[in-house]
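Hi everyone, sorry if this is the wrong subforum. Our group has a chain we'd like a structural model of before ordering constructs, and none of us has done structure prediction before. Sequence below.
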Amino acid sequence: MSNNKDISRRDFLKTAGIAAAATAGLSACNNQGNRDYAGTEIDIPTGQMTYRTNPTTGDKVSILGYGCMRWPTVKDESARDSKDQIDQETVNALVDFAIAHGVNYFDTSPAYCQGQSEHATGIALSRHPRDKYFIATKLSNFAKSTWSREASIAMYRNSLKELQTDYIDYMLLHGVGMGGMEELNARYMDNGILEFLMNERREGRIRNLGFSYHGDIEVFDYLLSRHDYYKWDFVQIQMNYLDWRHAKEINARNTNAEYLYNELAKRNIPAVIMEPLLGGRLSKVHDHIVARLKQREPESSVASWAFRFAGSFPHVLTVLSGMTYMEHLKDNLHTYCPLKPLTDEELNFLYDTADLMMQYPTIPCNDCKYCMPCPYGIDIPGILLHYNKCVNEGNIPEDAQADNYRKARRAFLIGYDRSVPKLRQADHCIGCNQCSPHCPQGIDIPTELHRIDRFVEQLKQGTL
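Answer:
Right subforum, don't worry. Here is the predicted structure as tokens:
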């Protein structure tokens, strides 16, 4: 695709105006997972976006942030899950439509989209004036080969090159906490990289410095305890209405979002929100939960409740959404143009909804794919997500005497073979456990795979 930096206002508005038509044939079955789209057929007004002010720089940031982890590919898939080439023309159209409707925060990483995200994002954004958008990217030095000072600095400088910019608006230490204090020290402290980034902030090549938190609360508390020195401009946390009070019940390694948010708020550190849909799980909920939400707001999508929740807290700077298709973007714009904050009564309704959701035995897989690739070719997320889908749809029969046993048995087994190739199913797991240490949700993956495999065998033999 041509990288034309001189896009005219008329061409820009034309592109934004026809963006929906350019993607009209795209499927609504997608990574955001919405089962309906309140905003798909509704014109989204311009000039209605809700903005929050960064207290450090005064940036007016759109409450909807564009997560660039799931750009579409030429085969109409998410580049997070595919090695196919990114569809740059569609990326351009999505970015144009987003900017035309007030979105100005774009979050990427050298690790996203099989390493293609920064490049595609840079092409799309560089067609617009630089003061019309904020770029967030990360020092994603996960591999030990990138822990050296030289390798980390090279990664940072390559981000500037790929994004076609000479400064980064929001720079993050990526995924701190996953390996505890030892990994934090190795990736950012012992090699002097955090000091290097702080100096880049002083020199103006980084405007805001923060970190994204995953996992070990000791790391989170330590970094905040040094706030007077590091002067964090923002912190990215996982927050949604299920994790608000139930994160530790789902996984003892996690921390309830209520604690994370409040610790940032009392220090006046803006929160950037990731996983507002909990990896899509809050838009693919049990049918009973769908009915409960729809009864309350028939015209709103299931996902919109989660986005309203995340945006209703005053210290939230922006809420990230990985929007692969125009359906995602328009539905979220419908929610945030403008945002209607939840009332106290609506918040309590969602807290009660979260309590009900805890009654359904889904596996806390966010489809992050940090467990992949499996050395034995097993499609770990595909297996876990199929199981969760059947839980939500009532297709997990407890015994052969259940009223819906035949229907549920058929739905589970046929759906399993369709969604996960036989050579990649759970029966091939040997329990090597190379996957579990990488899971941010702390899932004992081999145990779950073996349990699902036993369940499948019982279904096949009719021995439940």
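For your construct planning: The beta strands are 51-53, 60-62, 64-67, 105-107, 134-139, 168-176, 206-213, 234-238, 271-274, 316-322. Confidence is low (pLDDT under 50) at residues 1-6, 8-36.
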